[in-house]
Design brief:
By secondary structure, the chain is of the alpha+beta class. Helices cover about 15% and strands about 45% of the residues. Strand 3 and strand 4 form a beta hairpin.
Length: about 120
């Protein structure tokens, strides 16, 4: 029997709806609020009102239970969802050590709560 692909992931994804401020790096006018659908230590997926473009560098401010963290990343995939919304997958490329610890703790807490 084949393994569940989620078990092969490098970073466990946890379903969570958190507010996220999304900004294209170098484009101050592009700021928009979105909501995550999943978060992991290595990236997140959120729903946005328009495509950002695969490969686009983004800055994210994600509201976690203990505090807001800042992450820079790049868009690795996009899918048009219902009603024209766009699901956007982002890989984190730069997260401060303090924010990384906060993120990893939030993910670990969510994984433990789901078990």
């Amino acid at each position: 029997m084949a393994e569940d692909p989620r078990e092969q992931r490098r970073f466990p994804r946890v379903p969570t709806q958190k507010a996220v401020l999304v900004k294209r790096i170098g484009d101050e006018a592009s700021e928009a609020l979105a909501k995550t659908r999943t978060v992991s230590s290595g990236g997140c997926m959120f729903v946005h009102h328009e495509p950002l473009g695969v490969g686009t560098a983004v800055e994210l401010l994600i509201s976690l239970p203990s505090r807001v963290i800042k992450a820079e990343g790049r868009v690795v995939w996009e899918t048009v969802a219902q009603a024209g919304a766009v699901e956007v997958g982002v890989e984190f490329l730069d997260v401060s050590a303090k924010d990384r610890r906060t993120l990893e703790a939030a993910v670990a807490d969510a994984v433990a709560a789901a078990s």
